Amino acid sequence: MEEIKIINPHQDKRWDDFVATHPCGWIVHTSGWKKVIEQTFPHIKGHHLALIDTETNEIKAGLPIYEIRSWLTGNRLVSIPFATLSDPLVSTRQQSDALLQSAIALQERLGFSYIEIRTLGLNQLINSSFRSNKDYKNHYLELAVGPEEIWKHIRYKSIRYLINKANKNKLALKVASGEGDFQSFYQLYAATRMRLGLPAQPDLFFKAIYDVFTPSGNVVILLALSGEKIIAGHLLFKFNGRVSVEAVGEDAGSRHLYANQFLYWEGIKSACAEGHKIFDFGRTSVYNTTLIDFKKHWGTKDAYIYTLFYDKGREVMGASTRETSLPYSIMRFMCQKTPGALQPILSRFCYRHLG
Which of 8, 150, 282, 354 is paired with 45 by a 20 to 30 Å CA distance? Predict the structure, then answer.
């Protein structure tokens, strides 16, 4: 017999053990992510639904789902806030249905507008009560073939040539350590987001990720140096055989040194050396054709990331593609018009309503 319970993953060791062994387990499913989210965003609270075998006391399936309270984008349940990959941890349709019914019951009890679930490969397990879109793609490399074979399939003129130039420019690789390196990365990341007209995640969020996950080796920041100057950085997640580039920053005045391409290639090589199976280039909107082309030039495969909504067919504001939603469009406009000195305030406001 099986039953669903809401468990506290900080107090129940079974949860992280279960995540680590599930094929879809990812860093955002862990108790550490709950700590990061709730420490950084007071308006978000996590509920970890666990399907438990009452005879063996084992967790058989799970669904972390977070309540987000916002007057702008609506009160909702999301699995999982600020996550690129966040598949429900299920193996069968029966498990999926049971957990989703519990999520719906929680939504109704809270009186929230809708449920949002993001899934890379398990959309077929989501029941017909949920509508979906596939407006994001995931680009990735399979690493089993090794770096030499991967190199052969990278586009020469747009990528390999630039990596060779970066090496001729004598860029150096450094793994971030300490507060100074972290702040250098964050400043590059925030400046890059501002140039793109996008809000930057608050520094407290990245600092919490760095503090919680670097001791275990699940998060690293790779930095590119020209001489003594840090000119680019990549924040990487490493978990369950997958390495994912989650955030990037690059000095605008040093782009001619091709540090971004240099860091991607160094990340791929280190992921191969460490025995990981997948190198993940992250989520990309299908509307961002420039970024899609860049990732394709690395010889990547791609798959749709499905965003699934339960809102009883009402299609409430916010329960739509983020890229085309009204709140997102307003935030993009504000980012493009706000002076640099006020960007941190704007970022905190934006991420008070996103997730």
Answer: 282
Q: Is residue 344 part of a domain?
A: no
Q: Which residues touch 207 (CB under 8 Å, ≥6 apart)?
A: 182, 186
346 within domain boundaries: no
The number of CA neighbours under 13 Å toward the Cβ of 227 is 2
Contact 243, 271 (CB under 8 A): yes
188-198 residue pLDDT tens:
999 999 888 88
Classify strands 219-226 and 172-175 as parallel, antiparallel or unpaired. antiparallel
pTM of the predicted structure, to 2 decimals: 0.91
Can you give the residue range of the structural domain that contains 277? 139-303
Cβ neighbour number for residue 189 with a 10 Å cutoff: 23
Residue 323 in any domain: the answer is no
Q: What is the pLDDT of residues 54-67, one digit of tens each?
A: 999 999 999 999 99
